[in-house]
Amino acid sequence: MLLLDVQDFINQFFGDFGYIAPFVVLLLCGVGLPLPEEVSLIGAGVLLHRSETAGGGIEFVPMCIVCSVAILLGDSAPFWLGRRYGLSALKIKWVERIVHPERFARLQTRFEEHGNWATFACRFFAGIRIPGYFVAGMMGMSYPRFLILDALGVLISVPISIWLGKVFADQVDELQAKMDDFHLIVAFLAISLVLILIVRARSKKASRPEDRPGG
Predict the structure, then answer these.
(1) pTM value?
(2) DSSP code per residue over 181-210
(3) What count of other Cβ atoms lies within 10 Å of the Cβ of residue 98?
(4) Burial environment of residue 146 by CB neighbours within 10 A (0 to 12, 13 to 18, 19 or more)
(5) Which residues 6+ apart lie within 8 Å of 100 measured at CB?
(6) How far apart are the two ends of the chain, measured CA to CA in Å?
(7) How far is CA 61 from the centre of its chain?
(8) Which one of 4, 110, 130, 192 is most buried, counting C-beta atoms within 10 A?
(9) 140 vs 150 pLDDT, higher one
């Protein structure tokens, strides 16, 4: 439900600002915005579908280019942070929250063992992208190599995600309509469950021997 609410906001925001919106959102994702990159890309696909339906000017290839450039620029931020400051950057609180020292240690081992493959694979695992690119910079990988490896992943993930958003745009709208009713059902069930637990707790308390007269 939360994912659909976020997606609905993204769709509205993208619809108001066209190409600029996905560029800004995806760029911010690269520097720590707590929003899954895939949600933004699917939102771009939904925007593309609605634009085509309404006879608008948004097209698939330009959208892929805009999103890819934004992602590569955003991914460059943690890379250069790791390249410039290394482990000392982990002393900054907001960096520590994003990179996570424990996850950093595991990623460092992976990069020592697999190098280029580890950098490429980070693109397909949302939770380790930013820490992974930070480690790549800290380990001394050249920026051109990092950019090529990241771009190879982007060439796969971006068109597919946008295309999926475009293809399933109608289903997303239908699901959102159904979820409006589903929200009410879940709220009713949650309240009912709480009431049942309260009644059961009071019944158990009343049935205890020490609570009875003369017990």
Answers:
(1) 0.68
(2) HHHHHHHHHHHHHHHHHHHHHHHHHHHSGG
(3) 17
(4) buried
(5) 131
(6) 50
(7) 23
(8) 130
(9) 150
